[in-house]
Amino acid sequence: MSFKRVALTALLLASVSACGGQNDQAQQAQQQAGPPPVGIITVQPQAVTLTTTLPGRTSPYETSEVRPQVNGLIVERLFREGDQVRRGQPLFRVDQQPYIAAVASARAALARARAAIASSAALQRRYGELVKINAIARQEYENAITSAQQAQADVAAQQAALRSAQIDLERTTVRAPISGRIGRALATTGALVTSGQTTALTTIQRLDPIYVDVPQSSADLLRLRQSIAAGDLSRGGGAARVRLRLEDGSVYPVEGRLQFTDVSVDPATGTQTIRAIFDNPRGLLLPGMYVRAELVEGTQGDGILVPQRAVQRSERGEPTVMVVGQGNKVEQRTLKADRTIGENWLVTSGLKAGDRVIVEGGGGMLRPGMPVAPKPWNPNAKPAGQGGQPGTPTGQAPQGNQAQAK
């Protein structure tokens, strides 16, 4: 038994010696090969257009619920559901016979009032001559004047009644109050309708242009205003631009513009509604569609961009990068980066102009203080080495904040 133990111990010692020899050989080979090559980029400030992507809903530019303004039976529908209608176009016709009769009656009453005014005016003239010679009492002359004035007032009242009857007759033809796309008819021929009823006959929506309503956090809007006021962002002239991404992921070909921001904050959600307006000549956007709006916040003139593959996460979850410092030795930097620009991070602190950031290389064995051989990184070249290199991104951008290099 003692012989076997001695043999086993000798075998283990030989294995350890062999491994140590291999490691020494690897270290010697690495020292002979020199510092490992790494691909770097030299960061420089550049103009960056910041955007925010938020969900929203489309809403019509104008909406009108068509209701009757007179009582009666619908005798005809004059449009086709889903068509484009013009303002003033006839939509429904209500039975006109009662209103034609009312107009005729008002005309007759007006004629009677006009005849009465002629008689009272003649009586006033005769009494005026007689009162001068004291042939009649003064009171009778004043009564004649009052009768003439009442006759004139009756004429005015009958003129107004005739105009009212004519308006009701015109309203028997229900017309489109706005131009737009008309929906389905909610009343059919033969239906009894009343003036001011709660149920609409149909609805018309103007869809060109069209609104997009987007809720945004009031805290984000406050931060944006403070950045603009401090000069960190520039908005340029004109209205803020808005791009739109549809439900199927496609980009709407027409760029919109910011219309206004609601003046109050919803206390339940802490958001303000932003309204943008888009031209919609082909009618591609319909009310109620879910979209994602990319709001252009402004341009940051001194933005620093770092490829996502160059960023790692520390044990505390902080974003870090490896940079080539003095003497071509590796240094680790902790960054502050809270949004992405395509395949890059927008760095707000931790780097300065001229820093050489390692994007790839080193075989995943880079450590602070390690000498390296830097060379410019070619993003189009096939990456050398294996996975787990320093350039592999491990973090994701917060949802809703994005930016775009300008």
Automatic annotation (TrEMBL):
InterPro entries named in the record: MdtA-like_b-barrel, MdtA-like_BSH, MdtA-like_C, MdtA-like_HH, RND_pump_MFP
Alphabetical keyword list: Coiled coil, Signal
Gene3D superfamilies cross-referenced by the UniProt entry: 2.40.30.170, 2.40.420.20, 2.40.50.100, Helix hairpin bin
Multidrug resistance protein MdtA-like C-terminal permuted SH3 domain mapped to chain residues: 304-362
Multidrug resistance protein MdtA-like alpha-helical hairpin domain residues: 103-171
GO CC aspect terms: plasma membrane
Gene Ontology BP annotations: response to antibiotic
Signal sequence bounds: 1-20
Renumbered residue ranges of the record's region Disordered: 368-406
Chief location bin: other
Molecular function as annotated in GO: transmembrane transporter activity
Coiled-coil blocks: 134-168
Domain Multidrug resistance protein MdtA-like beta-barrel per the UniProt entry, residue ranges: 209-298
All residue ranges annotated as the Multidrug resistance protein MdtA-like barrel-sandwich hybrid domain in the record: 63-205
Family: Belongs to the membrane fusion protein (MFP) (TC 8.A.1) family.
Protein name: Toluene efflux pump periplasmic linker protein TtgA
Source organism of this protein record: Sphingomonas jeddahensis
Protein encoded by which gene: ttgA_1
